[in-house]
TrEMBL record:
Identification of the protein by name: Uncharacterized protein
Source organism (scientific name): Flavobacterium dankookense
Keywords: Membrane, Transmembrane, Transmembrane helix
Highest taxon in the source lineage: Bacteria
Keyword Membrane among record annotations: yes
Transmembrane segments: 7-26, 46-64
């Protein structure tokens, strides 16, 4: 378990960056689909969850930097 946590701590910024790119891609695809179908009002809720995950990843990156500065 300690090895897994060490790897996650070491590569957490990279992992969170990949997650942010993934969620931005999901938002872009939802936006493109809503523009093609003219259903933006119906699909507004599809943008909330990816945005929350992006904010969570940014918060995790902030906490990693804060932990590194403290040590």
């Amino acid at each position: 378990m300690q090895k897994i946590l060490a790897i996650l701590n070491k590569y957490s910024i990279l992992i969170n960056s990949i997650c942010i790119v993934f969620w931005l891609y999901i938002i872009y695809e939802n936006y493109k689909a809503s523009q093609e179908g003219n259903s933006f009002d119906e699909r507004k809720s599809y943008f909330i969850i990816p945005t929350l995950f992006i904010l969570l990843s940014v918060f995790n990156m902030y906490m990693v930097e804060k932990r590194k500065r403290r040590n």
